[in-house]
Amino acid sequence: MLRFFLLVNKQGQTRFSRYYSGMPIQAEERVLMEADIARKCLKRSDVQCSIFEYGQYKLAYRRYASLFFVIGFDEEENHLSILELVQAYVEILNTYFDNVCELDIMFNIEKVHVILEEMVSNGRIVETNKHNVLAPVLEMNKASR
Amino acid sequence: MFEKSLTDLIRGIRANKKNEQKYIAACLQEIHQEIKSNDPDIKAQAVSKLTYVRGIPSYDMSWASFHVVEVMSSPKYSQKLTGYLAATQSFRQDTDVLMLTTNLLKKDLASGNHLEVGIALNGLSHIVTPDLARDLCQDLVSMLSHSRPYVRKKVVLVLYKLFLKFPEALRLSFPRLKERLDDSDPSVVCAVVNVICELARKNPKNYLSLAPQLFKLLNTSSNNWMLIKIIKLFGALTPLEPRLAKKLLPPITQQIQTTSAMSLLYECIHTVIIGEMLTSGGNSDALAAMCVSKLKIFLEDPDQNLKYVGLLALSKILPTYPKLVAENRDIILKCIDDHDISIRLRALDLVVGMVNKKNLTDIVKRLMSHLLPSNNNNESSTLPSTLLEPAYRADIINRIIFICSQNSYSNIVSFEWYIAVLVDLTYVAGVDVGELLTTQIMDVGVRVKSVRQYSVKAMQRLLSDSSLLENCQFPESNSEVLYAAAWITGEFCRLYSYPGVTKLPHNVQAVYIQSILKVYAYWANSLTYNWDEDSKQELLRFTEMIKDKISTFCSSTDLEVQERAYNAREIFSIIHQNLSTTHETTFDVENNIYSSTNKSPSIISELYPLFFSYELNPVAPKAQKKVPVPEGLDLDAWINEPLPESENSESEEEEESYGYGYTQKFGGSGDLIFSSGSGTAIGRRRDRKSSKKGYNSEEDEETKEKRRRERNERIKNDPFYISSTGNDLSKHSKSDGLSKRVTEEIDVDSIPVVRLTMDEFIFKTDKKTSKKSKASKKEKRHSPPPVPPVIYTDIGEMPENATLSDEEKDSTKTGNNKPIWNSIPSQSSGILDVDFSGVSNVDLSTPLGADEKFPSMAVYLAPEEVRRREEERVRRRFTERRIKQTQESTSRVKKSKSEKPKSKALEITPNTKNTENKGEQSSKSKKVSKKKRTEETEDRKKKGKKDKGKKPKKKNSISENATLENHDNVVVDEAASIKTLVDSDDIQVLYTLSLGSFTEAKNEPPAMIADFTVRNKCSHKHPLSKLTFTFESTSDIQFDKGLIEIGELQHDEQKSVTIEFKVLGIVGAGLTVSGNIAYEIQSDEETKTNADIPIRFELPMAVFMLNIPKITPEEFKSCVTKTADFPFTGSTSIRLNASINLIEQSFQNDVTRLISMATGTHIVEQVQGAITMYGKSVQGYQVAGLAKLTVEKNIMLVENEIPGSAQNTSVRIELKCTDQAFVDGLIREIDYLFKEL
């Protein structure tokens, strides 16, 4: 099960966060944890693998330009598929925003949420097909207008 | 306007990098204001901004929960989205406004817009609580058959979350969920697999029955993501069903060989390993070898991630195939030196498992080298800083000790080496592992006799190492090891001096002192063997010295150290005194008794057995179990009789005074009481009642009185003691002895306390220790023991009378369970954990019982809902009254006209007549009219069935004769028209729908009647048997009796059945009834074919319309002008393809008829190109409609000069209604009807 999905930039600022447990943790705890994770990710070099243990969870991260996409998950989850999920997510964002950058994510946080919501539900990966993910999102855009 | 948009806010934050906090605080102020705004747009924008600000850590938004709910309920799609997003981000399980969302969610889930349903479902999956789960589960389960795959997929996923919160739902909905495995849409199937996979991981037993379906999916699907899930799911199932493993091997093997997706390959290998497929399959060795060789590819890959997971998988295969793993030892050892710490740690996991006698030294050396600061510079530059991370160092040390000590040190060949390693670790550790090292050193020292000498030597070196003492204030220096060192030297006796100990931690000091005593005792005792003046002098001198030194510790701040120091000092001073006195006497009579009394003073030899009577040995692992239960000890018996009930009801005051009484007794009287465990407690309690008299008699009345007075004096100012009045006394004095204690006047002295004599106590404890402790192998050591050749005793100490025969089995069992290195700390409850206990306890193997039903709607209603209902009720009453008035007036008008229609539409006379009847009667009493109506419906039904054949003809005649007057009749007739439900080779089912009887109480859900006519049209003239109809109650539709058995149906026989149901849900578009028809065809003697046909039909809105008398245009006008009564509108337009000449006519005849048929309204007035309609539904909803014919010139077509159809004609229909859902449904039906045409 996925526990959380974070987007942190190189300055250690959280750009996006999504938690998949019934109880959102206390704000202070969350801040500390996110900062700690960002620090840990920044510390790692290219020669290191992008999966590491963090407390009782595992973290898988990928870095795209200035942004780290970090997923916290349970041991039982397929580690490689988590990394593939990150890749798929970024590809979809890239298609949607047409060359996504950090600003796109900041200014369209709702869309980023909606897209992730289509792909991951309750901490399970449910959809990775680019078309299937984007179709309802685009439809929503149309409906909002 | 002047509010900041979200984009403005973000820009602002970016622009104010320096004083971001301040800027956000100012924005929050604005948001506070905006969120309270009445403008939904501003409110939504505020919530959206707040959600964003919350994304920046440390801004709480729980205060805005209510506003979030407001935005969630916005009718605007984008605002709703914002609201739900805010809710998912900010709501917690205990957010109180969640209670208000139940109805909102219900409404959104029932929405016709699938995107809205989608957001509601997404939101629900985050905010669901047990209450929400209970209230919504039925809605969700019925949505499993939603027409949109998108919604079905989401529902399946939300259901999983629901099960976690409300486990009962799992049993109830699982059959429906299972059906979705065969869904036509792959993404729905994937979702179901996902959910089942998660469920199966918690309790796989329930899902074994799904194996065939899943197996099919495994073989057919090409979606890697789903395959991973399915394989994972099988991994959970195979341990329960070993046969499954055999079946799975071919497809999984094939996947392993062919797939190019690394994640799938990994999953296959992983499942093969953890699914115990290697132990059950036939050629499992080959498979295992294949897995390991594939994993080797992972390890050799330059991608670090693959390396990592490869090691992870190898560590799983290690317990079963250590040999295969060992083949890759070189690669694995290479990984230990990897740059990446996580890879290293995983490699270490493997190494831990690969250790054996031969390679232990080598591996430990390798690990130790990681701890040593690297000498060569080039290496240190490449190594990451994590090498020096304390956690990593501690981990390595833990592992070293783990691999050495596992299986009772079975891998260690030389314990001297091990002790040396431990000592080295003390120096190089650099982290605080002192405790671990201490226990290890002591453990080895105790267990392994042969190494004691060596370890004592090593410990001496440690003790005399001044660097340890100097650094002892840093925990990293591991000066705690000195504890072990001192203890070992003390216990195993080699003498050494201890300088500068005072700075050491207190517990170490305490052990030092104790050890000094021990060492001293041993040394003194050894002196006694050749006792002479020299040794005596030396002893004397030394005793003096120690005594002085120890005095320093007598003023220690630590209690333990202080007490021990005093103890030791006293002993030393006694000895010293003793020695010096004997010295004098021996000196005096030296000549006489020198030869005979060449003996040490007895005090010295007596000191020795104080410490060394018993050798300290390790206790056998099973010793505790082997303690025989002594005779007469019944563990099930009450130790204290449970207190009488009456005592519970008494107040706390009593409890307090109860306790008080006891302490008074203990402290005040000065009795010596041992409260050692339960033994004394029994006596105390039991005797309290029984020996009251005896105790009383011992004390004379006078002293008692005196004590009582003293006591009263003492408690007078005691704040913990509530004084009571005389009333209380009288009240309690009558009750039993226990409650007497309540009052202040309680006779404390009369509370008997058992006195324990000292010898009894000693006797008891003595007996205990002899049984429980390590005293079985008593070995009095009067002389220093020679070092025995034994290396160590494996069994350890056993209690007396231990039965050795039994229970050896379970010891072997546990012996098989090799200790496994826990690479990941036990997953105790983390902050993000989810409670699965409910779901994993659900049992799906037993069929659903009759009493298991979805819970009905919540008992509570949100305040706004209550208000809404109340308003609705009042509104209905008003409209009722008004309708009544209208009816009265209409009927008056009608009476005059009534002759005309009768003659015109002959074929539908019964209806017309009924309508007329009703019209007349309604003026008298509404109730009666309703009864009539029921009869009428019955009539119509019969007629409908009989006249099936005539139907088309009748239609024609109606359209021919279509007049204003009989339109209402047509409407009713059409609404109840016969439709075909099933028409297969064997069976034909027709049905009609009509309103059932209803009562005056208007808020009761409308009842409907469905009549089915079943005909056996089996081509081979076989009879149909066991014909049954089953209907499913959903959240919207409730069947009193969901099952109808018809029995046998001969060829061409026709039977009809009627079923009644209530419509509970919102009457709107898409109300459907679903169920099944099951029957058996007996084609010949042998063969029977079972058929199960799903049935499904929609409830058209028109069915809900009442057959009310026509209203006049004037009434209509006055009714409609009061627009407040018709707050909801809907509109649509229909294109007509009729030629220009016929348009007006077709509009007048067909179109209007169809519209009024679809809406169940009657036509009020018809003018050129427009009609008005009016109708009323059974719930009291009024519908007013206007249809207008518009003709537009189509320029394109005119240019092309195509005559006739040169105009684009359409009919614009506008409906006004008192209910939103109802009008939506009506519009939809009109659209639907004309699309069909």
From TrEMBL, chain A:
- Xref: SUPFAM superfamilies: SNARE-like
Q: Which Gene3D superfamilies match?
A: 3.30.450.60
Q: Which GO terms describe its cellular component?
A: cytoplasm; endomembrane system
Where would you find this protein in the cell? Endomembrane system
Domain AP complex mu/sigma subunit: where?
Answer: 1-143
Biological process GO terms, please?
intracellular protein transport
Could you tell me the keywords of this UniProt record? Membrane, Protein transport, Transport
Pfam families (alphabetical): Clat_adaptor_s
Write out the transmembrane intervals. none
Signal peptide residue numbers = none
Top-rank lineage group of the source organism: Eukaryota
- UniProt similarity note: Belongs to the adaptor complexes small subunit family.
The protein's name is: AP complex subunit sigma
Which organism encodes this protein? Gigaspora margarita
From TrEMBL, chain B:
Identify the stretch(es) annotated as Disordered. 643-662, 677-743, 766-829, 859-962
Kindly give the SUPFAM superfamilies that the UniProt entry links to this protein: ARM repeat
Where along the chain is composition biased (Polar residues)?
813-829
Q: Which InterPro entries match?
A: AP3_complex_dsu, AP3D_dom_metazoa, ARM-like, ARM-type_fold, Clathrin/coatomer_adapt-like_N
Q: What is its main location?
A: membrane
Ranges annotated as biased composition (Basic residues): 683-692, 769-783, 942-956
- Pfam families associated with the record: Adaptin_N
Please state where this protein is localized: Endomembrane system
Q: Which UniProt keywords apply?
A: Membrane, Protein transport, Repeat, Transport
Provide ranges: composition bias, Acidic residues.
Answer: 647-657
Is the keyword Transport in the record?
A: yes
| Listed PANTHER family | AP-3 COMPLEX SUBUNIT DELTA-1, DELTA ADAPTIN-RELATED
The similarity comment for this entry is: Belongs to the adaptor complexes large subunit family.
Query: What is this protein identified as?
Result: 3010_t:CDS:1
Organism whose genome encodes this protein: Gigaspora margarita
